[in-house]
Specification:
Order of helices and strands: HEEEEHEHHHHHH
Helix content: 40-55%
Number of strands: 5
Strand content: 15-25%
Structural class: alpha+beta
Distance between the termini: 55 Å
């Protein structure tokens, strides 16, 4: 049993579901199925490792399936923020915004998850219950998750519940200020200008105080460029009266 067999079986499963709008990518670490349009990128997948043991001088290969996972990215957000962050070495330059698969993180209690230790697959018979579990994950967890997080305004609404640094960092990552500014602007949030001005002025002040610090310079230049871009960007959604 190896990763190629596992990947082929999961690909066959998805093809059986008549979901031709998902493309697929596989390697020895697992597989992913991706659905893209101009509003969202949806990705679901599974992670695996290959291993073996020796029994009576006979090598037995097996695969451990560790987890199922889901991610959502919003290209309207990423195509603005990603190039600026990459240009200033605050985000990886080796990928384009179209390859960013995750715009946010939320804690979600899925019904169909695997044990923390993973599941050993030594033959196709072992894989049958896992394929059934993945099918349940697809219909009961993945599709509802994607249907909920269908557009940027949903993330904007979720973001309103807590303005603390800890909450936004957990939700949007360590560069949450940049993402928040873009979300506020694109969603026509009245608080955009005050937030953007405050963020930029703070980064400018820190840079002027510590001009020799590379990170201070990176954040300042990135915030300056982002402000210039966003101040001349029209909102996509009109939520100012919501």
């Amino acid at each position: 049993m190896n990763s190629e067999v596992i990947n082929k079986e999961f690909l066959n499963f998805l093809e059986e579901q008549k979901t031709s709008d998902f493309s697929s990518n596989f390697d020895k670490h697992g597989g992913e199925f991706v659905k893209k349009n101009e509003k969202h990128f949806f990705t679901l997948g599974y992670s695996i490792t290959e291993d073996y043991n020796v029994v009576n001088d006979d090598v037995k290969d097996f695969v451990v399936i560790h987890r199922f996972w889901l991610h959502t990215a919003f290209p309207e957000l990423e195509k603005i923020v990603h190039p600026i962050l990459a240009k200033n070495d605050l985000f990886g330059t080796e990928i384009s915004y179209q390859e960013v698969y995750k715009s946010f993180s939320v804690e979600t209690n899925f019904n169909n998850i695997l044990p923390k230790e993973g599941v050993e697959i030594r033959n196709l018979e072992d894989l049958i219950p896992i394929k059934e579990k993945f099918k349940q994950f697809f219909y009961e967890d993945a599709l509802p998750f994607f249907n909920h997080w269908h557009s940027l305004p949903v993330l904007h609404e979720y973001m309103q519940q807590d303005s603390s640094r800890e909450f936004l960092s957990n939700l949007l990552g360590t560069l949450h200020q940049f993402k928040k500014a873009v979300i506020l602007k694109l969603c026509n949030d009245p608080s955009y200008q005050e937030f953007m001005d405050s963020f930029y002025n703070k980064r400018k002040m820190i840079f002027e105080e510590y001009p020799e610090e590379k990170v201070a310079e990176q954040y300042y230049k990135a915030s300056k460029e982002l402000k210039e871009v966003l101040d001349n960007t029209e909102p996509i959604y009109n939520l100012s009266n919501s």
